[in-house]
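User: For my dataset I need records formatted as: sequence, then structure tokens, nothing else. Please produce one.
Assistant:
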Amino acid sequence: MLDRLNPPALPPPFARYAHGVAVPPGARLVFCSGQLGMAADGTVPEGAEEQAALCFANVAAILAEAGMALSDIVRVNAYVTAREHMAGYMRARDRAVASPPPASTLMIVGGFTRPEFLVEVEAVAAKMD
């Protein structure tokens, strides 16, 4: 269904992601807003890896509402507040996303709405009906 695009004219991806993903005509798309590492009860774990795992759990809940799963993700945009949070985020991402992996971007940002937030994840998923 989905075609991962890693053209030989580009260097290989730096981590577990695809340079692009082609979605076929007729696929249903779901766009997930950025999810923070916060549980339904409002608790926020201290570490970036734990927050990222919650971000992906929140994305999974949104996708489930649409009859989709994390394996349907075609693109991830992620944000961390410091370079030292990248490895923890990437471990959580690699556990959450399917193989072959989606297209992905990871950025370091100055912060989020509350200082305890270290990671935010947004995703786009596609599935043929």
